[in-house]
Protein backbone atom coordinates (compact mmCIF):
# COMPACT_ATOMS: atom_id res chain seq x y z
CA UNK A 1 0.00 0.00 0.00
CA UNK A 2 1.55 3.26 -1.09
CA UNK A 3 0.26 6.22 0.85
CA UNK A 4 0.83 8.77 3.51
CA UNK A 5 -0.34 8.88 7.10
CA UNK A 6 -0.96 12.26 8.71
CA UNK A 7 2.21 11.87 10.80
CA UNK A 8 4.45 10.97 7.84
CA UNK A 9 6.66 13.61 6.24
CA UNK A 10 6.80 11.79 2.90
CA UNK A 11 4.78 9.06 1.15
CA UNK A 12 5.97 5.53 1.71
CA UNK A 13 4.99 1.89 1.52
CA UNK A 14 3.08 0.59 4.54
CA UNK A 15 2.20 -3.07 4.91
CA UNK A 16 -0.78 -4.13 6.97
CA UNK A 17 -0.32 -7.16 9.17
CA UNK A 18 -2.21 -9.00 11.85
CA UNK A 19 -1.37 -7.30 15.13
CA UNK A 20 -2.91 -9.99 17.37
CA UNK A 21 -0.97 -13.17 18.06
CA UNK A 22 -1.46 -16.17 20.31
CA UNK A 23 1.33 -17.83 22.25
CA UNK A 24 0.62 -20.82 24.51
CA UNK A 25 -3.07 -19.91 24.72
CA UNK A 26 -2.43 -16.28 25.66
CA UNK A 27 -3.06 -13.36 23.33
CA UNK A 28 -0.87 -10.35 22.62
CA UNK A 29 -0.94 -7.39 20.26
CA UNK A 30 1.91 -5.45 18.74
CA UNK A 31 1.95 -1.68 18.35
CA UNK A 32 3.45 0.70 15.79
CA UNK A 33 5.70 1.86 18.58
CA UNK A 34 7.26 -1.61 18.66
CA UNK A 35 5.81 -2.84 21.96
CA UNK A 36 4.10 -6.15 22.61
CA UNK A 37 1.07 -5.73 24.88
CA UNK A 38 -0.49 -8.57 26.87
CA UNK A 39 -1.08 -11.27 27.83
CA UNK A 40 -4.86 -11.38 27.51
CA UNK A 41 -7.09 -14.41 28.04
CA UNK A 42 -9.21 -14.25 24.88
CA UNK A 43 -9.02 -12.70 21.43
CA UNK A 44 -12.10 -10.62 22.25
CA UNK A 45 -10.32 -9.21 25.32
CA UNK A 46 -7.30 -8.46 23.16
CA UNK A 47 -9.29 -6.65 20.48
CA UNK A 48 -11.01 -4.57 23.18
CA UNK A 49 -7.61 -3.65 24.60
CA UNK A 50 -6.37 -2.70 21.13
CA UNK A 51 -9.24 -0.20 20.85
CA UNK A 52 -8.52 1.18 24.32
CA UNK A 53 -4.80 1.47 23.53
CA UNK A 54 -5.52 3.42 20.35
CA UNK A 55 -7.86 5.72 22.27
CA UNK A 56 -5.19 6.38 24.94
CA UNK A 57 -2.57 7.19 22.30
CA UNK A 58 -4.94 9.55 20.48
CA UNK A 59 -5.88 11.33 23.73
CA UNK A 60 -2.23 11.61 24.69
CA UNK A 61 -1.39 13.14 21.31
CA UNK A 62 -4.29 15.60 21.64
CA UNK A 63 -3.02 16.70 25.07
CA UNK A 64 0.49 17.21 23.71
CA UNK A 65 -0.81 19.30 20.81
CA UNK A 66 -2.80 21.54 23.16
CA UNK A 67 0.26 22.07 25.39
CA UNK A 68 2.61 22.90 22.52
CA UNK A 69 3.51 26.61 22.37
Task: Describe the protein.
With 69 residues, this protein is an alpha+beta fold. The protein contains 1 helix and 5 strands. The strands form 2 sheets. A 3-stranded antiparallel sheet has the order 3-4-5, covered by helices on one side. A two-stranded antiparallel sheet has the order 1-2. A hairpin with a 5-residue loop joins strand 4 (26-30) and strand 5 (36-40). It is flat. This is DUF6316 family protein. It comes from Metapseudomonas resinovorans (Pseudomonas resinovorans). Residues 5-58 form the DUF6316 domain.
Class per helix and strand makeup: alpha+beta
Unreliably modeled segments: none
Please, how many helices? 1
Quaternary structure annotation: single chain
Content of β-strand: 25-35%
User: How many beta strands in the DSSP annotation?
Assistant: 5
Mean pLDDT: 86
List the helices and strands and how they pair.
Layout: E1 2-3, E2 12-13, E3 20-23, E4 26-30, E5 36-40, H1 43-67
Antiparallel strand pairs: 1-2, 3-4, 4-5
What's the gist of this structure?
By secondary structure, the chain is of the alpha+beta class.
Keywords:
three-stranded antiparallel beta sheet, 69 residues, alpha+beta, single chain
Amino acid sequence: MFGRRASDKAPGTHYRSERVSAVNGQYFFSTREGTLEGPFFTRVDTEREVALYIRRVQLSNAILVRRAP
